[in-house]
Amino acid sequence: MAAYPLQKSNVYVTQPTLPPLEEFLPYLQQIWDSKMLTNGGPFHQQLEDALCQYLGVPYISLFSNGTLALMSALQTLRVTGEVITTPYSFVATAHSLVWNGIKPVFVDINPATMAMDPARIEAAITPHTTAIMPVHCYGYPCDVDAIQRIADLYGLKVIYDAAHAFAVRYRGASLLNHGDLSVLSFHATKVFNTFEGGAIISQDAKTKKRIDYLKNFGIADETTVVAPGINGKMSEINAAFGLLQLKGVAKAIDERRLRDARYREGLAHIPGVSVMTPVEGLEPNYSYFPIFIGPEYRHSRDDLFFALRARNIYARRYFYPLISDFPMYRGQASATTENLPIATRAANQVICLPMYPNLPLEQLDEIVELIANLART
Asked: Which biological process terms from the Gene Ontology are attached to this UniProt entry (predicted)?
């Protein structure tokens, strides 16, 4: 293998999986012929039905993106006041709270799963707390049992940001069925995508009906508006692309599994490089491949990051900075480094390496060799 690979090609942390264009054209023709472009058309309904069956969930409501789905989930459960959440996530998690006039309260994470540490939750509860919003980070499950026990004890709602958890199964069932609601992202770089899109998983027909009102301006019929809703509908083009994507998602996850195993084998003996440990009972989707650069590595995390970039390997420090470090959040009492030591350490050590179904194995091996070479110099 070359010691300094990939001088001409670009390798990104994630890549959208695109089927051949000719397979998508018949869907487009049907949309053009029907002249139904949005507002819950036939492809929208077909995709909801297909996803319920594939994911093993009772109800799903499609959205134009995951952020609107998060915002609408909070509206669905009438969440107010304060919500306990994690700083180790994409900013949309906290932004969805602020857009609803809710104060995010940050708690530290579990170093094994990078998810919210339940042991930190009770101390963060105040009379204003109404909900918990954990994140299944990188598709690894939160401690769903402990979180639910706390929620039941204090009468709190639980909304999972499950943006990374498409098709993840835990202890024999869908991880998406935990909590009051779970929210998915179908962004282009996700395991399953609809170009842009998202969804809310709910557990009963009444809740789904409220969600569906809220994502369509609160409109119940031609003359009736029942809630101050928003325009969060998924278009027929996005839904059609989702139906096509769904046909190949199982194979795509299998390809990711192979690459996950190859990374683990290649990185296993490099000092200062650690990876996340598989969780018992978890059937993952291999959505990301984070590594953590510890003090035993001969260079800093950022040295490695920029060395990768210099070779056209577009890895990502995901999640860095922490949400709590951004100007709109860092003034809060819960945002201090002292309150978030594990999350702070993870943010300063993490690099997500390229992970997608058609990542060439020879390029993956070259990435591993670059990391190993830098560890020796």
From this structure: polysaccharide biosynthetic process
